[in-house]
Task: structure prediction
Amino acid sequence: MGKPIAGGKKRTIQYLTLNGKPQPRVPVYTGKNIIAEKIAGISLKRFTRRAILTDENVAGLWYGKLTPLLYHKNDLLITIPHGEDQKNIQTLQNIWTVLFRNRFDRKSVIINAGGGVVCDIGAFAAATYMRGISFLQAPSTLLAQADAAIGGKAGINFGGIKNSIGLFAQPLAVVCDTQFLSTLPEREWRSGFAEIIKHSLIAGGDLFRRLNAADISGFREKEIETILRLSSAIKCNIVSSDPNEKGLRKTLNFGHTVGHALEMASHESASPLLHGEAVATGMVAEAKLSQLAGLLKNDELLKIEKIIAAAGLPLKAPRKFLKEVLIKIEQDKKNEGDRIKWVLLNGIGKAVYDMEQPEQHVTSAIEYVLE
Result:
């Protein structure tokens, strides 16, 4: 095991406490230059095999930080191509094949070091290989550190629908090392704020006040650990009370019914949206739907649009996606039968779930964000 990396005084920890379950709490660490130290504390030597799963971009940028975590000749660095289109059954099969050929057994462990795609598919691969092996999440993007790596959702895209095949599986720990954010492209950086904004809109509190009062586009290292701590605390509290999304956890889907449909529709075109970009526009649409339902005031809708725009995220999406968006919304995994279940805002900081809305309101809300 490599020596702990020096530096980074501010370190925070949240916990997922799985309601009524016999499993231990899942620590969520946030800080700079903490990956070697925190993973060393988990004692990987107790496992028979170790692998790091990452993508080609992260491997190219952070090879020197990742490989010291592997110390035995049988340990593996597994790389997959970068991008949302890799989150599929073929990539999953490739990962299983590598593990099988290298004789990984049920006492093996995988460290998923990458963005949301790596964390999602890596968790799914671990949770299904040999009926489940241990894994850790080491998210490398702002979006993954704020949301995707926390909470135990794992899955792949299938049939043109986002995350339509998946399960719940909790990692040993989540290590959000902010040093990885230093190499994020500007577009990926902005995209990550969508999930942070979402948490602020469904829970309100200090996170919303900070985002509403600040120049989000100017956030960098000094402020980001505080923002990530506040954001992850909201998600940890919600998931701890409802780990398998039977009730309150559904509020975390705000912006995602339209957002996922937009994202997947865009990936069938020459101009694909990043997840955070699609969710940002989805939040505007679903905030508008909340207004049409009489739940959200007009000035609150304007505040939401202002925060999203301040983060450099899109309020609108191309009109060419309309037909596909409407089709994909009807196939959303959160639906029950033919009924579309929405998460709406009954004011900022007050999310409500399982809301059914008239078709004309839904169409009007989607039209509102298309140009």
